[in-house]
Structure formats: C-alpha cells, structure tokens
Write a structure and sequence with these properties.
Blueprint (H helix, E strand, L loop, with lengths): L1 H8 L5 E5 L3 H16 L4 E9 L6 H6 L4 E6 L3 H5 L3 H4 L3 H14 L1
Parallel strand pairs: 1-2, 2-3
C-alpha cells in the first residue's frame, strides 16, 4: 500500500487530504482518515477542492474531529490564466488557496 510505504520511507510525514464536494469522495476520505488515524499518522486537515457552493463536506469532516481547512471554489478562469502567474494570482482559486495556506501556518 502506498501510504504504508510512505510512512516507512519518510519520517515525520504529515498528510493534507484533498477532496471534492461529492458524497463518493467523502466516503473515500472517511476511510483514508480512519486508516491514517489507525497508523497514528498526523493529519494537517482536509481541503475541499472544486467547490460549487451547493454541497459541502465541512460538517462531515468536522464530525470526524478533523480540521476542515476550507474550500477552493471551482474557477473557470484558472484555465485561461495558466502560464501567466500574475493572472493566476488574481483568480478566486488563488485567493482561496492563499487563505488556506495562511490558516495552516497560523
């Protein structure tokens, strides 16, 4: 299993879990969190990627006593900004990601 190999090879490994706002993804994340906890692997938290605002995994993640770091909205402009760092930094994707990164550093 990849996770077991990583834990053996890399000391002090922390996991950042990324999911999408779907029930199928959430079930996979629940299993992953349970596995990581059984291995006593540190979990930084969970990020919801490609959020549409209609369904959020936040409540379910918090029920697992796991830190929900935030949502990154689906952003059609990110495709147009590829290759142009100054444009990427102006997207809602970049702004949401910066907010999450700052919350981890705090």
């Amino acid at each position: 299993d990849v996770i077991l190999d990583l834990l053996k090879l890399i000391k002090r490994l922390n996991f950042l879990v990324v999911t999408t706002p779907s029930k199928l993804s959430l079930e996979t994340v629940k299993k992953l969190i349970a596995l990581l906890r059984s291995l006593k692997a540190p979990i930084i938290g969970v990020i919801e990627n490609m959020s549409t605002g209609t369904y959020s995994v936040k409540e379910e993640i918090e029920k697992l006593n796991t830190r929900f770091l935030g949502s990154i909205p689906i952003d059609p402009e990110i495709e147009n900004a590829l290759g142009a760092p100054e444009k990427i930094l102006k997207t809602s994707f970049s702004q949401a990601l910066a907010k999450i990164v700052n919350s981890i550093k705090a």
